[in-house]
Design goal:
mainly alpha; 78% helix
Length: 87
């Protein structure tokens, strides 16, 4: 994890830069859940829950964000590939 944190900092990225990518992932997850529901009465609630999860991760700082991204993308190298889009 230290290498990934160093890579992020060396490339001038901050926790704030990672906020959007974390929120985008949770937004897609919320949409997937909503699409699987037979009733769309819960759309707003589902999005609120997933948005809160994203905020919790983002408020935890860069290490928590990178741990989350690593769990999504599999390894440090793939996280770097995804983060290059922010450069």
């Amino acid at each position: 994890m230290k290498n990934l944190i160093d890579w992020v900092k060396d490339n001038g990225l901050t926790s704030e830069d990672l906020d959007e990518i974390v929120h985008d992932i949770f937004s897609r997850k919320a949409s997937d859940v909503n699409n699987s529901l037979t009733s769309h009465n819960f759309d707003e609630i589902v999005h609120d829950v997933f948005s809160q999860k994203a905020s919790d991760i983002n408020n935890g700082g860069i290490e928590k964000q990178l741990n989350f991204l690593k769990s999504c993308f599999g390894n440090d190298q793939q996280v770097e590939v995804e983060l290059r889009t922010l450069l």
